[in-house]
């Protein structure tokens, strides 16, 4: 190879080396920071193709997408001096690259650790100001909204991180407290069951008493109406009998005597009467004389 060709090759190689060391690309999903001898010279690098001084300046790239911090379940004390185990997570992203790099040296694990500590501190303060009922159901949404706002303000100033949301995945009770709560809930439900049964028995007795009273009144009124109807029927029958037998009193006396004979002589009783008794009137003489 001639000296001229060799020189050209060296120059081309040097240019390629400088280009490979000096050119860099920032994607849409990334944030970048440029350092010169470990000092920040540019913390607002836009996405695209950029240039840096080879071997003097360095560029660090960070994920600019929304990231998830899934913290480990932690134990917190409520206002009622009851412990709860809270499992929460947070959604966050880099807001200020300069502050983020200064606080964490660009280490995502370090950022997650610091954010987790701040989130646990916020959870501890908010839960300590609320009862267990409020934490579990009553003010849970309000707690998460307030915690997100407070945590976002603190992390932006200290870590350069924007906290978008904080949510609780689960709230559990410690094993010893769970058993105590279960026993208390069971006793409370048993008390309510006894109260409902007592009210039911009281209501049933009232209904039974009212039904018995109505039954007595209905039976009494029915008996009264029946007796009235029977009396009216007997009176009507007597009137008809009187009207019928008044036409022939002798025939009436005769039929009454026959009825008396029929009802008397079919019995096994012994009857002692005088032979000239009026009872034997038609036995002695069919004409009754």
Automatic annotation (TrEMBL):
A Pfam family annotated for this UniProt entry? Band_7
Give the matching InterPro entries.
Band_7, Band_7/SPFH_dom_sf, HflC
Q: How does it sit in the membrane?
A: Single-pass membrane protein
PANTHER family from the UniProt entry: MODULATOR OF FTSH PROTEASE HFLC
- What does the UniProt record say this protein does? HflC and HflK could regulate a protease.
In its UniProt entry, what is this protein called? Protein HflC
Band domain residues: 21-185
Q: Which SMART domains match?
A: PHB (SM00244)
Q: Which gene encodes it?
A: hflC
Query: Keywords for this entry?
Result: Hydrolase, Membrane, Protease, Transmembrane, Transmembrane helix
């Amino acid at each position: 190879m001639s000296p001229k060709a060799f020189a050209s090759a060296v120059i081309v190689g040097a240019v390629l080396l400088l280009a490979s060391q000096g050119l860099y690309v920032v994607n849409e999903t990334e944030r970048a920071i440029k350092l010169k001898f470990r000092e920040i010279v540019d913390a607002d690098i836009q996405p695209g193709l950029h240039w840096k001084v080879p071997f003097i300046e360095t560029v660090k790239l960070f994920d600019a997408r929304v990231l998830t911090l899934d913290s480990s379940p932690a134990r917190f004390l409520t206002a009622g001096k009851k412990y709860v185990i809270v499992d929460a997570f947070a959604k966050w992203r880099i807001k200020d690259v300069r502050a983020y790099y200064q606080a964490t040296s660009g280490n995502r694990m370090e950022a997650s650790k610091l954010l987790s500590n701040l989130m646990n501190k916020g959870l501890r303060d908010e839960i300590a100001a609320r009862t267990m009922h409020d934490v579990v159901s009553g003010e849970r949404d309000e707690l998460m909204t307030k915690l997100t706002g407070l945590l976002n303000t603190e992390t932006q100033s200290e870590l350069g991180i924007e906290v978008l949301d904080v949510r609780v995945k689960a709230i559990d009770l410690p094993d010893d407290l769970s058993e105590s709560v279960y026993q208390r809930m069971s006793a409370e439900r048993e008390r309510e069951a006894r109260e409902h049964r007592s009210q039911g028995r009281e209501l049933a007795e009232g209904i039974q008493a009212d039904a018995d009273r109505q039954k007595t009144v209905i039976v009494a009124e029915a008996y009264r109406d029946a007796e009235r109807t029977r009396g009216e029927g007997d009176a009507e029958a007597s009137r008809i009998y009187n009207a019928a037998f008044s036409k022939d009193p002798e025939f009436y006396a005769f039929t009454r005597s026959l009825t008396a004979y029929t009802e008397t002589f079919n019995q096994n009783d012994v009857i002692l009467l005088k032979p000239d008794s009026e009872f034997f009137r038609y036995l002695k003489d069919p004409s009754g004389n």
